[in-house]
Design goal:
Blueprint lengths: L22 H105 L16
């Protein structure tokens, strides 16, 4: 009779428990490290770009605020200038009106004096031998 017995192979692990690095696991770890460093570099570039854009936006906002203040100053100066121009026009009109009135008053007084002197001349010529010299003058207003 033959008896068969089964034998089970059991290997005993003589290495201490821990991580065993093989060539395959080393390649995977190096790949992970390289990928992480590339991702870190890309993240740094993206963050730097975002910071530059944010800085540019802040600078543009400051410039726009300054432009808005300058625009408001220009509007204020424009309104002030418009008021001064209107005041000048009004004063000019008043001065022209006053000068026109003075000119009319002077012309009126001159005509009255002229008529009075002619009346006196006629009286003196009629009642006496008074001779009047003739002057070249016009009684019409100059236009």
């Amino acid at each position: 009779m033959s008896t068969t017995s089964s034998t089970i192979a059991v290997t005993t692990n003589s290495s201490p428990p821990g991580i065993t690095l093989t060539l395959e696991t080393t390649g995977i770890l190096l790949g992970i490290l390289v990928s992480a460093s590339v991702l870190g570099g890309v993240c740094i570039k993206v963050i730097s770009s975002i910071n530059r854009i944010s800085s540019s936006i802040t600078q543009i906002e400051k410039t726009l605020e300054e432009q808005a203040r300058n625009t408001e100053k220009i509007r204020e100066i424009d309104r002030t200038l418009a008021l001064h121009i209107q005041e000048y026009v009004n004063r000019k009109d008043v001065v022209q009106m006053v000068l026109g009135q003075l000119n009319e008053k002077i012309d009126h007084k001159f005509r009255r004096v002229l008529f009075y002197t002619r009346d006196i001349q006629r009286f003196l010529q009629r009642d006496t031998d008074f001779k009047i010299r003739e002057y070249e003058e016009t009684t019409q207003p100059d236009e």
